[in-house]
Structure formats: C-alpha cells, structure tokens
C-alpha cells in the first residue's frame, strides 16, 4: 500500500542545479535523486542495467555530469540514458543503448519537494498527482507556506525496533507532552490541548505554545500562529511535518519489517536563517531529544504488543487523530484489496 503513495524523497533545494544528487534508500530500494541536464528532477533506481551493481554509494553531492558504473564502466546521462558501453562492438554487438536506460520511479516536483512513487512496476507513466493526493484545501495551505523558498539544512537517519504505524501515531496527540517530554520540550507547550483536523487521509495538528496566552492582551490583528505553536501535518502514510516559525522538519518513518522501521529526519530552513548555525544546532538537538523520547517509547510499546497483555488499546477523546489515522490506513488497504 505504501509503495503506491507519493512519498517525499528530497527537498528541491538539495538538487538545485543540474548535476546535484542524493543517493539514498527508499523503502529498501536504492535510489538516486538528481537534477538532470534539462533541469528536471529525476529519481532513478541506483542499479546498473548491465549486471546490477550500485552506481553510487549513499551520499549527496553536486557537479555530476554522468553516472559511471564502478564495476565495468557503463555510463549513463543524468536523465538515465545509457551512453557508453566499454568495448561494445566486441562484447555487446546487438545491444541498442536506447533500450537500456536506468529504471526510474515516477516523480514530480511540488511545494518544493521531490515526490516519487517507489514502485517501478506500477502503472506506466503514473506521475504522482500531488495536488490530488493532498486534496485542494491542504494543497492551498501548503502553497501559502512557500516551502519551495526554503533551503535544505541537514538530514539524519537511523533504525528503531517498532512498527512504523506506532511511530507516526506519536505525533498525532500531545496528551503525553507533560509526562514523556517533561525534561525536553514540555516547558514550551500547553499540555493536552491541541487542534486536530483531517484533510482526505492527512491531518493537521496545532500544538499551542505557552506564549500563545500572551496574545490575549494584544489586538487581534497582531495575532500570529507560527511563532506561538507548532503546526504538525501528518502526510499519509509515513510523513510528519513540523512547521515552526522560520523552519520546518520532515520526519518519515518507513517500515523495514513488522517490528522494525527506518527513521529519517530532514531539516529545512528559511534562507535568511541558515547563517544562525548555533541556533539551529540547539533547536535540532531539542527536537531530536523529544523525538527520541517518542520513538524509544514505541520500542517498549512494541514489546508490549508482543506480550498480548492488551487485546485492545484505548484512545481518549484527545487522541482522535490516532483513531482517524487508523481508519485511513484501513481505507487505503481496502482500496488495495479491491484493486487486486
Ligand atoms: S554492472 Fe555496471 S557496468 Fe557491469
Ligand atoms: Fe512526543
């Protein structure tokens, strides 16, 4: 089901110029996200069409003019076309190079992100329709942020021993803030008070900061949400955006197995903010401390699920996002079954 959804593979600023690239894992598929000679974003599977060696190690960089396989030296243009096969006349006399371009994933650039559907065998030409995927309300709301004006700052990735769904659910309620995050981010937020709205299969949560109370003494026209709340978007099925005053962080939790997930966090900031390095590092450390508290709890919960102590779990009225998220997953699985 996840492999048929548009997933975010990079921020557009990571591949701002032709030849900029990111080689990474996407749901167990090695991919290269690259800006090609024509300025188009491409997502190739990082696998040579000769005998399948990886073209690049996991890395990010710029100034690439072609891909050259480190095994026998087959070369590809950035758009994926095979251009050179060493000793072709003698060794591959019948090969038409046009028949062996790199295998690519359908991808699109929208709201400053590169989105790809990680299913190379999916419907041919099924370019992700991101506006339809987000729905008109959320698509308009994202357009208003102007995420494409932001600049990539840093990414980190690690693995955890929990099911991906409980990872995503950690960010759909703030009932746990004063307890689990008492030593990290609790001082910033109002405990157990949040808005949660659903858009198609996606969600917007607003976690108000304590500073929002000061607005009561100010004229309404000076009220501003972003400095006084974290706005959290759950983008179905694996992504969570944390929109802050002048930056945002994207957390994605990809399944590796039923009880194992890969966590990836990408930090993106307003261009005028990037020089404030100590500020960012402190901010990222605080964010990471809270995320670690959330995901370490997922590991204890996973052991709890295995114990069968609970034949069902309880969601409070303040945890409605979790209930709705589960419904979205069931709905998506039903669609899969009907199409099978
Ligand atoms: S596997 Fe790439 S050139 Fe042989
Ligand atoms: Fe949390």
TrEMBL record:
Residues 8-116 form the Rieske domain. Transmembrane segments: none annotated. The keyword Zinc does not apply. The keyword Metal-binding applies. Its cofactor is Fe cation. Keywords: 2Fe-2S, Iron, Iron-sulfur, Metal-binding, Oxidoreductase. One of its GO terms (molecular function) is 2 iron, 2 sulfur cluster binding. It comes from the Bacteria. PANTHER family: CHOLINE MONOOXYGENASE, CHLOROPLASTIC (PTHR43756:SF5). This is Rieske (2Fe-2S) domain-containing protein. It comes from Salinisphaera hydrothermalis (strain C41B8). The lineage of its organism: Bacteria, Pseudomonadati, Pseudomonadota, Gammaproteobacteria, Salinisphaerales.
